[in-house]
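Page 47, continued from p. 46.
Same chain as before, 293 aa.
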Amino acid sequence: MKIRIGVGAGGASASAPALGELVGGLDALGFDSLWLSEVLTGPVLDPLIGLAWAAASNPRLKIGTTALLPGRNVLRLAKQLASLDRLSGGRLLVTLVPGLTYPPEREAIGVDPKQRGAVIDDALPLLRRLWAGETVSHDGPAGHFRDVRLAPLPVQQPLEVWLGGNVPAALERCGRLSDGWLPSLCTPEEAAAGRRVIEDAAARAGRAISPEHFGVSVGYASAPIDPDTARTMAARRPRSLELTPVGYPALRTCLEQFIAVGFSKFVVRPVAAPRSWRAELEALAAAVGDLQT
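Result:
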């Protein structure tokens, strides 16, 4: 397996100097990719704008996003992602997510959590058809339009789409529709079990997902988590504290455990903003950089 490690920035990249330091350090220290997530109510950059800036400032680094699909106009999203892939020369990595369920993010997304799966089921095949250059008409949960043909098209043909999610419906959807799986907040044993569900669902749909296309997004703390951050994490995502490795040795052990059960792509995310991205990346590189193969 090709082990690859990218870094997720979160709110620690919400300025041009911080993002520039992060992009330069990722490239210099041999990390695979930069990842920006979409949280509408959080203190983070819009991921597509941030990634466009990053791609323009570095000609080599891959750029990845965990972007919301529910609540978006599917045609606009198709065009935005195709444009970003074209301008970056085919360096875009895409994971689409249903979004978080805690307030006020739940309300900001504008789609009831119980309906988000249906939107993804409807929209993802449309995105693929549009990116392939088909003329598309549609009437369904993802939108209503006639005789639309997208241009410009992505450089990558196909532009692959991974999905997140750990619940049974998300796993089954991943098997039916996605090119890969990038969950978070799960144990290696849970990830291995989820992969089996996904591969079974893919087989029933007459398709297969590459064994190289299973990864995990891992939040970590370089030092003990302060009480205020711990309370916020627990309130938003109940298992986040128990599943957050604390310290670089613990992070390395965590990644090794996922590698042992067949996972090979990782996005590691500091849960607290580092004082210096360069220092953080140097510490990360020393701790886990040699896992990349």
